[in-house]
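If your schedule permits, I should be very grateful for your opinion on a structural question. I have a record of one protein: its chain in single-letter code and its fold written as discrete structure tokens. Kindly check, if you would, that the fold set down in the tokens agrees with what the sequence suggests. I remain grateful for any guidance, and I place the record below:

***
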Amino acid sequence: MFGVKTLKKVLLLLFCIFVARIFFHNEDTGYVENKMEKLNIEKIEFDEILKEESDDYRTEASDFITEQSESEQMADEVKPDDDGRQLEAEIDEMNQDEIVENIANNQTEIAEQRLPSIAILGVKKCGTIALSQMMKMHPKIMVPSDPEIWFWTFPREFRKGLDHYKNQMPFVKGDQMTVVATPGILDKPEDTTYLKRLRDSIPEIKVLLVVKNPIDRVVSDILHEFSTAQHKDEIMPDIDEFIMGRAGLIQQRGLSGLSLNEMVFYLSNYTLIYQMVSQVFPRENILVVNGDMMITDPLQEIRRVETFLGLDPFFSQSHFVFPDGGRFPCFKLGEHNLCMDPKHKGREHPPLKRGTLNHLQKHFQPMVYSFFYETG
């Protein structure tokens, strides 16, 4: 009788051939055909052996072979699932579209240089630089490294065009705005040429006009000119004599053609300056900023600027620190403090004689009343 161990080996061989048939059907048809041919040979040999065995063994083996043949027939009938492959392709396409959409939604905005949307027109010695540095703390405001860019009043620079001007601006993203000071743009009395250049080039620009006590501005301007500006190498005349016009005319190089004596008085004539600005720009695009309030109550004044520009409130009292013995606040953002240079800002003013002070009050008082009336 054929041994049980031998039978098990034969059955194991048949099972291995069956498994190979399933796994290699789609990849190597020739290989499978060879296996099937060998399987047929094995079956014939096995049938001959079974003839010598008992009926029970023959019946069990035949049943097993029948089951194997049916399984192989089912495997032959298996075809690639076209619907499944199409579904997989559609899923891949959907995933790709989702990735592209996510990239578009989350893509980092590209920084770019733009023309300014806010211009600080002046007035000189009223706090234009202090205002730009204060505004710079706001996350939606960007300021050039040099906040005062000479362009509109310099023919050689203006001829280079707006692209040249734009290339001097900081990089901004999204709804960030650029603010820049415009030195010299008010220097010629009753001449709006430079203001019109600005308006025609950037029609929607908003302008900030910074003013302060006109008498304090006159004194600051004189001290500035003889300490760090055109006349720094000259001996400053007695300030009372200068103001009263008894020190002689001191010529001034510049756009206006005025002497220094005339210039310091003109720039404190806010009524005339406001009339020039409002002739060119819509009043809703003009904000008069109180330079004195920027010293005594900077938070209140910068909030007015935020409102005018449509900015979300950002500033708080923690952004302003008054150092011991200092007249000007320091601007504090995080661990960084920015204080005005005492060599250029907040110089101690010499006391004026009573006659000089009366003269200045009489000169400027009607202008101040008119200015307050026009600006509301």
The first helix runs from residue 4 to 24. Residues 19-33, 38-47, 49-107 have pLDDT under 50 and may be disordered. The two ends are 123 Å apart (CA to CA).
